[in-house]
Amino acid sequence: AVYAASEGLRTLVLDNMGPGGQAGASARIENYAGFPAGISGHDLSMRTYVQALKFGATFSAPHVVAEIKCLPDGLHEVHTVDGLVVKTKTVIIASGVSYRTLGVSGLTNLHGSGVYYAATQIEAMLCQDRPVHIIGAGNSAGQAAMYLSKFTEKVNLVVRGNNLQKSMSTYLSERVVSNPRITVRLTTELRGVEGTACLEKVHLEDTATGQTTIEESCGIFIFIGATPCTDFLGNDIHKDEKGFVVTGGDLVASGKWPRQDRAPQPLETSCPGIFVAGDCRSRTTKRVAFAVGDGASAVTCVHDFLGTYT
């Protein structure tokens, strides 16, 4: 929206919640250019939202998109669940991803009462000076561990694999390992929880030894990846086996590009004139900077498609 509106495109954003997405729930982002002291995902999202408004983008929320129709005349219709229909020449899908959950009995009942999918100051204050368990091994989990360590000296990072560096940035994994308030639990998985009104205990299994322990916990913070929010897309838009939208040269290789007169734009989907950016796109690096760059590239593709680049 920032790049589209600032480059003269009439820009409408339909969102089912508001700005932020998965990045908005990140406690602290420290490797995004321009913020050497770091910035919370919420603050970064709200600054970007205000910036898009400044350039003239229109935001409409809450709207859940039911489907996108590729019309025979080359136009597209975006249909929302509440009956809104928008006809447009181009669409950029930036629907992101949704959090994965663990199939552990009792987690759903404790959601918001000790089971969390974000680590903000609100959750941190609720768990102050009490033990917490973070499930995951990616950057979001590492950032949450570092942030929560400011509020309690009993932070447990529960990692299913045997190597933290495989999925976490080097700078962050080094900070996590060297933080005396964080205990990294490799080859460990959550097997159960205890608590009625709120979380009280967790059951952990060391999969290397088979040993199970029961520990007190004030909060479980789950950061185990995400699935693409692309279920609303029909068969006209090709997706890979995991549901991520395929674009550009990968479409040609898969035989799903319908045009013979030209090649697809780098971020163009199998429906000409519809583009995709960010985490819901196939073969992306799940980083904020990558998503921002993807958004700018998608706008470039739109300009090339419309012939409006000067």
Name a few traits of the molecule.
single chain, 310 residues, alpha/beta, five-stranded parallel β-sheet, three-stranded antiparallel β-sheet, 7 helices, 23% helix, 23% strand
Calculate the mean pLDDT score and round it. Answer: 93
Helical coverage, percent range: 10-25%
Radius of gyration, in Å, reads 21 Å
Which residues sit in consecutive blocks of at least 5 with pLDDT less than 50? none
Largest sheet: 5 strands, parallel
Question: Given the helix and strand composition, which structural class is it?
Answer: alpha/beta
Shape: elongated
Element order, helices and strands?
A: HEHEEEEEEEHEHEHEEEEEEHEH
* CA distance, first residue to last residue: 19 Å
Walk across the major sheet and give the strand order.
8-15-9-10-11
The amount of beta strand, in percent, is 15-25%
The total strand number stands at 17
Count of helical stretches:
7
Briefly say what this structure is.
By secondary structure, the chain is of the alpha/beta class. Helices cover 23% and strands 23% of the residues.
Explain what you see.
By secondary structure, this protein is α/β, with parallel strands linked by helices. 23% of the residues lie in helices and 23% in strands. Helix 4 links the parallel strand 9 and strand 10. Helix 4 runs parallel beside helix 5. The radius of gyration is 21 Å and the shape is elongated. It starts with a helix and ends with a helix. The relative contact order is 0.16.
